[in-house]
Amino acid sequence: MPIGAIVKTGITISQIEPSAGTAVGGTRGIDGGQHFDAAWPRKLARVFKTQDGELNDEQGGEMATLRPSPRSEPISGASAKRIDMKFEVAVIPVADVDRAKQFYSKLGWRFDADFPYDNGFRVVQFTPPGSGCSVQFGTKITPSAPGSAQGLYLIVSDIGTARKDIVARGIEVSELFHPGTPGAQFQIEGGGRISGPANEHATYGSFATFRDPDGNGWLLQEVTTRLPGRGFGNLDVAMLTELLQEAEKHHGEYESTASKHNWPGWYAAYIVARQDGKTPEEAAKDGKIHIEVAS
After folding, report:
1. Which of 35, 81, 268, 288 could form a disulfide linkage to 23, CB 3.0–4.6 angstroms apart?
2. Number of folded domains in the chain?
């Protein structure tokens, strides 16, 4: 679950409370006392990454509790009518559903569903590892010709490792390449491609391709640093730890002049803003506004 979803959807944080004796990093705790634990961003990152709303510390320590609370008012004057629209499913056309199902199982993607109906309609769903978007295929699900879905992006942080994993599963994958001409990654015949990854593995610059048995084309792209305003995609523990450390720094600057306040609310507003693509400075302003509105 994206961290923003904890605050912006049906599960909201009313208060993250350190358990008795638990130290909170670098600034005043909720009780106003001075605490410090250099490992707290990593611990809290694990808490936030626990799925399905079950917040707990992977190491067994009772670090935080999650309690439902009413939805908070929009920050920064955002319209109350604005709601999240999450792209979660892409439909791909296949000729043989069972053959496609075998292929995506072999690829190691999570098998979510296979629902056949008496009228001939059937839908199968798989989800790539770490992805917030799934793929569906089946019968009577799309009028598109089998194999006509092309340029389906799979974003990876290490394209060499990702390619090796797919090859090890017995699936044919192109060599790593980078475009020599704009859009070369989308050319089915491979024109304009230069062998090997982009220079110094420049973010967004390295690719590899593979196809399912029907010819639907998948495009691996290596992204190591996202462009400003692009948010964080699917956060992992390492990335969320870094984000919490960044938030700690900006919260410390705010706290030095602010009155006693509910620091989890500031952090929640900050993290949601950063995931929405705002700069650290803009996110810090959102945290400040959130505290002022809640006071």
Report:
1. 35
2. 2
